[in-house]
Amino acid sequence: MLELAADIDVLARFGRALAEPLRCRILLALRRAPAYPAELAEALGVSRTRLSNHLACLRDCGLVVTVPDGRRTRYELADARLGHALDDLRAAVVAVESGRTCPDAEEKGCC
Q: Which residues form the HTH arsR-type domain (predicted)?
């Protein structure tokens, strides 16, 4: 039963990360290539402060890591398999029902 609890925790962390659209955009951007925060903020059209908060969340969830590069810090996915997982999850959801939305998502706190 302990393994099941650990599996649930891992999936819940991934779900929390994907629950925020900006974090999804960050993960998708990092799936393409590692990036520096300033460049990532500009590419995503968000403030560095807002990006920093979401990068911290993704780091705390264990989904991204920092890589020192001289005086700069680069961000990348913690494991290449995360990029494949994002691709597979997106493809699976689209294959199941691409036109579906989550009704009352804001009211129910889902999706």
A: 4-100
